[in-house]
TrEMBL record:
Alphabetical keyword list: Membrane, Transmembrane, Transmembrane helix
Protein name: General stress protein 17M-like domain-containing protein
Lineage: Bacteria, Bacillati, Actinomycetota, Actinomycetes, Pseudonocardiales
Region: Disordered, residue numbers: 1-24
N-terminal signal peptide: none
Transmembrane segments: 77-99, 105-129
Residue spans of biased composition, Pro residues class: 15-24
Species in which this protein is naturally found: Saccharothrix espanaensis (strain ATCC 51144 / DSM 44229 / JCM 9112 / NBRC 15066 / NRRL 15764)
Length: 178
């Protein structure tokens, strides 16, 4: 009997991440307050010839953190819209100039694309900002962060992984690698 698996099935081959979201498996071998510490732990395992393909870093207690980066004003919105429209218009103008058969009019399509791009950028930015009606007069950047990062390992190597990470915990953070 031949077994056929769809690319959308939850099954995967060893060492290959599953295609669909699946809960992680394995035993905890370390828990860290930052992602950087968890990366350092996995790097230490890799340096110790540990089979890191059996390791998973799991972010626990996820939070969406939105950091406000500035206030939005009409001037900033229109300036940003004009700049992004200019880049797109310049791109389109360059593409059109590549297919232009007139030898003397190579800058015409670039200039037209730039001006039209600025115009459309201004219009779209103004419509978008105006439709918000002052409900979001700031810009921000969002990140998904975790309260802690657990390092999991498949059971067959979990004890060895814990031993290696215990040695790492006894070493100072700024100590050179072995």
């Amino acid at each position: 009997m031949v077994s056929v698996t769809s690319s959308f099935s939850g099954q995967s081959r060893p060492g290959v991440p599953p295609r669909l979201p699946t809960p992680p498996t394995g035993w905890p071998i370390g828990s860290y307050g930052t992602y950087e510490e968890a990366q350092r732990a996995v790097d230490h395992l890799a340096d110790g010839d540990f089979p890191v393909q059996e390791v998973t870093i799991v972010g626990v207690d996820l939070m969406l953190v939105e950091r406000v980066t500035g206030r939005l004003t009409w001037g900033r919105v229109l300036g940003t819209g004009a700049a992004s429209g200019a880049w797109f218009g310049l791109f389109v103008g360059v593409l059109l100039s590549l297919f232009n058969t007139n030898a003397g009019a190579s800058f015409g399509p670039i200039l037209v694309g730039l001006i039209v791009g600025i115009g459309f950028g201004l219009i779209f930015a103004a419509v978008g900002y105006g439709s918000a009606r002052g409900k979001r007069d700031f810009q921000s950047a969002s990140q998904l962060v975790a309260g802690r990062y657990d390092v999991l390992c498949q059971p067959r190597n979990a004890e060895r992984g814990r031993d290696l990470l215990a040695k790492l915990a006894m070493r100072p953070v700024d100590a050179p690698k072995d």
